[in-house]
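Practice record 12: protein with manganese (II) ion.
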Amino acid sequence: MVVALKKNVSEERRQQLISWLKGMGIGVHISEGEFNTVIGLIGDTSKVDRDLIESLDIVESVTRVSESFKCCNRKFHPEDTVIDVKGVKIGGGNFCMMAGPCSVETEEQIVGIAKAVKAAGANMLRGGAFKPRTSPYDFQGLKGTGIELLKIASKETGLPIVSEIMSITDLPLFEDIDVLQVGARNMQNFDLLRELGRTNKPILLKRGLANTLKELLMSAEYIMASGNENIMLCERGIRTYSDYTRNTMDISAIPMLHELSHLPVIADPSHATGMARLVEPMALASAAAGADGLIIEVHNDPMHALCDGAQSLRPEDYAKLSAKIDAVRKAAL
Ligand code: PEP
Ligand code: MN
């Protein structure tokens, strides 16, 4: 249930209503808009007398929220959420360019790529230190050493870092990592989601390989229900009947998620296609569809990358793409 208050309601009257609701064991989610306040009710609202609330002189309207995702629902929070990562804003019209290699390999590699993507227009560095690989015999990432190298690259360039966390036991290593990525394979690792909800770190939550949008939103709900509201959703392609691409990029997920939720939506054309030459067209389509940012794999030497070389752009190609993104956003939005 969502209760929209009238404009200019006094703090005292507002608190009276909130305490009354809490007294009935109802969780309360407050969203301060530019003009009015929206109170989202969480929990068993069957005993809440809707007519009584509607009759209060401070209440503008009462709406039932039938969807099972509440905190991330746009009805609970009508305005776009804007996430601030060390001054880089994402959402609400702010576009974020995350770029970097699939995996951190050496100091020279990550620092070189960080400088190159920054020069090409990126405002966040991506790099995997813990890698969820299909085969246990493939490169699993540099782990703690990789995190240290990311910190060096961030120090050299000033770029905030996004990196994947696979297990909550690794959390202490991520203290200086700015955005924690939950990979597609962990989208429904509910214990991990719950624990990340107890941190105050922004989370990049990727859509699972075969998950619906509702399931993605329910996973965001797990994080939010534990207290962390700084979440970016990420469309990274899903398994369909595609025979020539790694996955199928669901461009329609971008406007649909915006309709359903107030959280920013990031597009990942690299994992969605698996092919460097398809990254640019899908990136442009994502920007035109209203994405709040892109996460793109860039490598200085894709032929010798330890992971995902086939889908990695060279820095010079990323620079060309980056310039086109600006033009598409200006034309489409
Ligand atoms: C990645 O970002 O390198 C990655 C493993 O992504 P995904 O979880 O989307 O496959
Ligand atoms: Mn990758």
